Amino acid sequence: MRRLKTSFKDLVSRLTRSGNHLLFEAEHFEHLWSIGIYTGTSPLALAPVPGLTQPVLTRDDVTDVCALMVADPFMINAGGMWYMFFELYNRASHGEIGYATSLDGLTWTYQRVVLAEPFHLSYPYVFEWAGEYYMIPESHLTGEVRLYRARRFPDQWEQAGVLLKGHAYSDSSIIRHEGRWWMWTESSQGRFDTLRLYMAEELLGPWEAHPRNPIIELNAQRARPAGRVIQVGARLIRFSQNCYPTYGVDVRAFEITELSPTAYQSEATSDGPVLGPSGSGWNKCGMHHIDAHLQEDGQWLACVDGWTAVPSLLENLKPMR
Predict the structure, then answer these.
(1) Which of 11, 110, 129, 170 might form a disulfide with 186, Cβ 3.0–4.6 angstroms?
(2) Greater model confidence, 272 or 2
(3) In this predicted model, what pLDDT tens digit does every residue of 9-23 receive, in sequence order?
(4) Whether residue 36 has pLDDT greater than 50
């Protein structure tokens, strides 16, 4: 997730064209991100949980540092407890990874920062493999995709390897499918319009570029990953951030119809977004992330994020508790 600033006139111009209207007298605006919980019968048809106060996590819930925002949530269930990892933007430094816990996946309690580096971190893609817990946070400033392993889950993490080098990789999203690892990652260094695919036999590699790379180019509506790649029955679904005409507009879904070491094809699951701006409240202006999990009762539970515009994140901070 990026913290962005732009002129108010440019904001109004862009959002008016996309059907969204903001009324601010400030000369500049910034994205204030928060986290919500949605449910539904399909990851392609999710809605806020009835009766649940949204958002479920905000920067005001962060108690150990002064956070400007929270975003990019990923969940995992371990031992009957839900754990959510997410970016929090530390006012004193940059993006760090915090976590929260929940017994039911609905009501969350913030815990603390669990991963901080000298460089910005976000998009903490957490997953379990062979009895261990791993995380791939975005670390685009290093020009690498770094893999972390839980030395003690959930609160102690160490670097286990470097999977890719050479680009400012953003929002790398990984899945094990039909005996092989696959990773989608955005590589345009700020345009949000180029998606590359990599593959490996083993998690630590070696990773090799797919021969069809870049699988998406010059398309800011489809390229940048927007959360966990999931399997729904026989279908493989990838989510993308729509970053046009501005960053964090909505979330689109694509079914991967062909995936092999030599071929790749995908198609949109619908003409419109699966998540988008509500027009009011915490996600008034846009949404750009989803992590959906199938429950035993057949329902899907997802953590999502959204943003509203504020004149200045620093000026709108509440006092630290």
Answers:
(1) 170
(2) 272
(3) 343 334 333 333 333
(4) yes
At residue 228, φ and ψ (nearest 5 deg) are -65, 135
Q: Which tokens in the block code for residue 105?
A: 């996946």
Q: Which residues, including other chains, have CB under 8 Å from residue 43's CB and lie 6 or more apart?
A: 230, 232, 237, 253, 274, 290, 292, 300, 302
Phi and psi torsions of 11, nearest 5°: -60, -50
Q: What are the DSSP calls for 212-257, one per residue?
A: T-SSB-S-TTTSSB-B--EEETTEEEEEEEE-SSSTT-EEEEEEEE
Name the 3-class secondary structure at 199. strand
DSSP string, 115-173: E--SS--EEEEEEEETTEEEEEEE-GGGTEEEEEEEEETTTEEEEEEEEEESS--EEEE
| Enclosing H/E stretch for 98 | strand 95-102
Query: Exposure string (b/e) for 195-209, b if CB count within 10 Å is 16 or more?
Result: bbbbbbeebebebee
Give the model confidence (pLDDT) of 75-102 as tens digits. 999 999 999 999 999 999 999 999 999 9
pTM for the predicted model, two decimal places: 0.91
Classified as helix, coil or strand, 60 is helix
* 3-state SS, one letter per residue, for 2-58: CCCEEEHHHHHHHHHHCCCCCCCCCCEEEEEEEEEEEEEEECCEEEECCCCCCCCEC
Q: Is-contact 200 208, C-beta < 8 A?
A: yes
For tokens 């690498």, name the residue.
144
Q: Which of 147, 152, 187, 1 is nearest to 87 (CA)?
A: 1
